[in-house]
Design goal:
This protein is α+β, with helices and mostly antiparallel strands and 286 residues long. The protein has helices spanning 2-32, 41-46, 74-79, 162-165, 225-234, and strands at 51-53, 59-61, 67-69, 90-94, 99-103, 108-112, 137-141, 148-155, 176-182, 185-193, 202-210, 213-219, 236-237, 257-261, 275-279.
Length: 286
């Protein structure tokens, strides 16, 4: 009888041991994988060591592995879809900085901002913007005594944050700052009464960053706010990866492209082929 009891103990002891290890392992795994308390977007940004990206939708990650997606406000939802009343607007494409912008068909062709008589900052007739134009481009009606439109400037090689790109607003300033979205990229829009004695008249500024290029859009004083928002809603970034336009120097190429000539000596018996824009770090040219 005692022999049987010993056999039973020998049989159940390993089973109990395995069960004990299994339960203990499960409890440890549960403890290790216990979900951390959820965070709000603003709380995540204030968490020490958290990292955030601001291209829409913005994301914030904490050192303990929690991720938060920036909430989408109603204005941002509206800006993601171009309004129907811009059908028929003209389109300007800039391959140098990789963007496309629509503007009213009644406006003049986009013009480069160059030194004008009297120091005017509007576009100068005879200096029409091209697809690979650099610097600032003016859109609007320039044949008026009082120009009406916007200017778009791009600063290359900007490695700062959006907050560093936006001008500081001093205490007591009449400028109002709001967050918006331009083709999936977070932007800041500033507005101010202009002329100051007209509460229904405004001037607008817009700031955003894409691919280390910092954009600044400025309206003329008294610009229509609905027109400004419609321009923003139709603004698009374009893919520069396939661009191989002819060029003379690197300045003729889009951002992150270089102006180089293919080898081609075996193809044309030593002749000199034209230069084209190629992505930086591309494989050896044929």
């Amino acid at each position: 009888m005692n022999f049987r009891k010993g056999n039973i103990a020998l049989v159940f002891l390993p089973i109990l041991l395995v069960a004990f290890i299994g339960v203990g392992g499960y409890l440890y795994w549960q403890k290790q994988n216990k979900a951390a308390p959820s965070l709000a977007w603003e709380e995540c940004l204030k968490t020490p060591g958290a990292t955030a990206t601001y291209s829409y939708p913005g994301t914030c990650s904490t050192p303990d592995g929690r991720n938060v997606i920036q909430p989408l406000i109603e204005e941002e939802k509206n800006n993601l879809q171009p309004p129907e009343d811009i059908v028929g607007w003209k389109t300007y494409t800039n391959t140098k900085y990789g963007y496309q912008i629509k503007y009213p068909d009644s406006w003049s062709a986009p013009q480069l901002i160059t030194p004008c008589p009297g120091g005017l900052t509007a576009g100068c007739p005879g200096h029409q913007a091209q697809e690979n134009s650099t610097g600032s481009v003016a859109f609007g009606s320039f044949d008026k005594i009082k120009p009406d439109g916007i200017t778009l400037s791009v600063r290359e090689g900007f490695y700062g944050t959006l907050d560093q790109w936006v001008p500081k607003i001093s205490d007591g300033s009449a400028l109002r700052k709001t967050s918006t979205v331009v083709d999936g990229v977070t932007a800041y829009k500033l507005s101010e009464n202009s002329p100051k004695n007209d509460p229904n008249s405004f001037q607008y500024w817009l700031y955003f960053i894409k691919n280390k290029a910092a954009f600044e859009m400025i309206s003329t004083p008294g610009f229509d706010g609905n027109d400004f928002d419609q321009i923003l809603s139709a603004f698009k970034f374009i893919d520069q990866a396939q661009s191989q336009d002819s060029c003379q120097t690197d300045n003729d190429c889009p951002v992150n492209f270089v102006c180089e000539r293919a080898g081609g000596t075996t193809q044309c018996q030593g002749c000199v082929l034209p230069k084209n824009c190629w992505p930086k770090g591309h494989p050896p040219l044929p």
